[in-house]
Amino acid sequence: MSDLPEGWEKRTSRSTGQDYYLNIHTKQSQWDVPTSPATPAPSQVRASHLLVKHRGSRRPSSWREENITRSKEEALQILRGYMNQIKNKEATFEELASRFSDCSSAKKGGDLGSFGPGQMQKPFEDASFGLQVGEMSDVVDTDSGVHIILRTK
């Protein structure tokens, strides 16, 4: 019988030997002992994104640029610059997505609306569902290009 709240499993890290706790619904882990029941993964999330395409993207063109020739490394550098502007409060996610995203969702500040499992490319889906509401991802790499994602719901 476990003293853990419902939905949590105690596990031991193979690398450190320390105990950690796994939410059996979301598969997210944490080092701190949980104090409340694990919440199930949402069936849908809502997110916005800022996409920077590169010449290796599956469709290297956008509403902003007919023929995208930048390298993936250049795209990553550009995206990290946007991330710094957001973190330093020089611009909002929505402002930058509206002006610079290579996705047509730029017209809506990057808003993709709500989506469920299986509707987005797997790395994008995993990152979106792994974020808390209001949290911004690190760089997410998909066949479309490189993204930053902001979970909004």
Structure characteristics:
153 residues, three-stranded antiparallel beta sheet, four-stranded antiparallel beta sheet, single chain, 3 helices, 23% strand, alpha+beta
A few lines on this structure:
The protein is an alpha+beta fold.
Write up what this structure looks like.
- The chain is an alpha+beta fold.
- Helix content is 22%, strand content 23%.
- Strands 5-4-7-6 form a 4-stranded antiparallel sheet, with helices on both faces. A 3-stranded antiparallel sheet has the order 1-2-3, with no helix packed on it.
- A hairpin with a 5-residue loop joins strand 2 and strand 3.
- The chain is elongated, with a radius of gyration of 18 Å.
- The chain starts with 7 loop residues before the first strand and ends with a strand.
Topology:
Elements: E1 8-12, E2 19-23, E3 29-30, E4 45-52, H1 72-87, H2 93-100, E5 111-115, H3 122-130, E6 140-142, E7 145-151
Antiparallel strand pairs: 1-2, 2-3, 4-5, 4-7, 6-7
Number of distinct helices: 3
Q: Note the beta-strand portion.
A: 15-25%
First-to-last CA distance: 35 Å
Could you list the spans in which at least 5 consecutive residues all have pLDDT below 50?
none
Major sheet strand order: 5-4-7-6
> What is the N-to-C order of secondary-structure elements (H for helix, E for strand)?
EEEEHHEHEE
Using only C-alpha atoms, the radius of gyration works out to 18 Å
Q: Looking at the structure, what is the overall shape? A: elongated
Query: Which structural class matches the secondary elements?
Result: alpha+beta
The residue fraction in helices comes out at 10-25%
Number of strands: 7
